[in-house]
Design brief:
By secondary structure, this protein is α+β, with helices and mostly antiparallel strands. It is 37% helix and 30% strand. The chain has a single domain, classed as Alpha-Beta Plaits. A four-stranded antiparallel sheet has the order 1-2-4-3. A hairpin with a 5-residue loop joins strand 3 and strand 4 (60-66). It is globular, with a radius of gyration of 11 Å.
């Protein structure tokens, strides 16, 4: 499991609503392709793109944008975020 947990900050929730993007904290060695495959498998969605960044706390964040056919709101509801 490359995905550790979802991010539930105000900014992350705004990304769900505005850009159809989910934000996760992931393992430091996880690649974008691994993250894409895991999100598609776990949540039964199609991923448009994955962007990653290492934050100041030493964690790796993944911003997973879904295709237009799928709603990040629906996945967030399953995760208990929104």
């Amino acid at each position: 499991m490359a995905i550790l947990y979802p991010v539930t900050t105000e900014k992350a929730i705004a990304l769900i609503e505005r850009r159809n993007t989910l934000t996760f904290i992931v393992e430091g060695r996880a690649t974008k392709n691994e993250l894409k495959a895991e999100v598609e498998r776990e949540y039964a969605v199609k991923v448009h793109s994955v962007n990653t960044l290492n934050d100041m706390k030493g964690r790796k964040k993944a911003f997973v944008r879904l295709t237009k056919e799928f709603k990040a709101d629906d996945v967030a509801a399953k995760l208990g975020i929104a």
